[in-house]
Specification:
Number of helices: 3
Number of strands: 10
Radius of gyration: 25 Å
CATH topology: minor pseudopilin epsh fold
C-alpha cells in the first residue's frame, strides 16, 4: 500500500512575515517624509472655518439676534459672539467661543493672487477692538460681502501659492463659499 505524503500547512512562516514587515517599514520610512501634509491641513482648516461661519449664520437665525464673528489675525483665532442685545459689545452672560484656524495654518494668501474682495488677510471693514468683524443678522444675511484668506505657515514664509485658500461671504444670503488656488487660477471647492 502506498502512503500519501503529508501536505505542508498553509500560511506564512514567521521568517516570511518578518521580511515582509521589514520591507513595508523601509518603504514607509522613505515615503512618509515626501507626503505634503500642509495642504491637507489647510484644506481641513478652510472647511472648519467655513463650517464655523455657517454655524454662526444658523445660530443668528435660530436665536433671532446678531452673531458676531471676530477674526484675530495676530493669534490666528476666530471668536464667535452671540450678541443677545445686538449692541456689538460682549456683555457678561453672552456666549462667546474662540477657535484657532488650525495647526500649521494662518490668515494670509501665501503668494496666491488676490480675489475680488482685496489684498488684506481679512477684508471685512467692521472692527471690534481693532479686529475685523462680520455680523450675521437674524434673517441670515451678513453685515457685508467680503472674505478672508488662509494659507499654510510654510507658504506664509516662503510664498507657496498653491497653499492659498479663500472663503468668500455673500452679504445678502450670508453664505460662505471657499476656493483654492491651483497655481494658475482660483477654483471653487466643494
Amino acid at each position: 500500500m502506498e502512503s500519501r505524503g503529508t501536505r505542508p500547512a498553509a500560511g506564512f512562516t514567521l521568517i516570511e512575515t518578518v521580511i515582509v514587515m521589514a520591507l513595508v517599514g523601509l518603504i514607509a520610512a522613505f515615503a512618509l517624509p515626501l507626503l505634503d501634509y500642509s495642504r491637507y491641513r489647510v484644506n481641513g482648516a478652510v472647511r472648519s472655518v467655513a463650517g464655523m461661519l455657517a454655524l454662526a449664520q444658523r445660530t443668528a437665525i435660530t436665536l433671532q439676534n446678531n452673531v458676531n464673528v471676530v477674526f484675530n489675525t495676530d493669534t490666528q483665532q476666530i471668536t464667535i459672539h452671540e450678541d443677545a442685545d445686538n449692541d456689538n459689545i460682549i456683555d457678561s452672560g453672552e456666549r462667546t467661543r474662540s477657535s484657532p484656524v488650525g495647526e500649521g495654518v494662518e490668515f494670509g494668501r501665501g503668494g496666491a493672487p488676490t480675489r475680488l474682495y482685496g489684498v488684506d488677510k481679512v477684508s471685512f471693514t467692521r472692527r471690534l477692538n481693532g479686529m475685523p468683524e462680520l455680523i450675521f443678522r437674524r434673517d441670515g444675511s451678513a453685515s457685508e460681502s467680503g472674505g478672508l484668506y488662509l494659507t499654510t505657515t510654510r507658504a506664509a514664509r516662503t510664498a507657496t501659492p498653491k497653499d492659498g485658500r479663500s472663503i468668500e461671504v455673500v452679504r445678502a444670503t450670508g453664505r460662505a463659499e471657499w476656493y483654492r488656488y491651483d497655481g494658475s487660477a482660483w477654483k471653487r471647492a466643494l
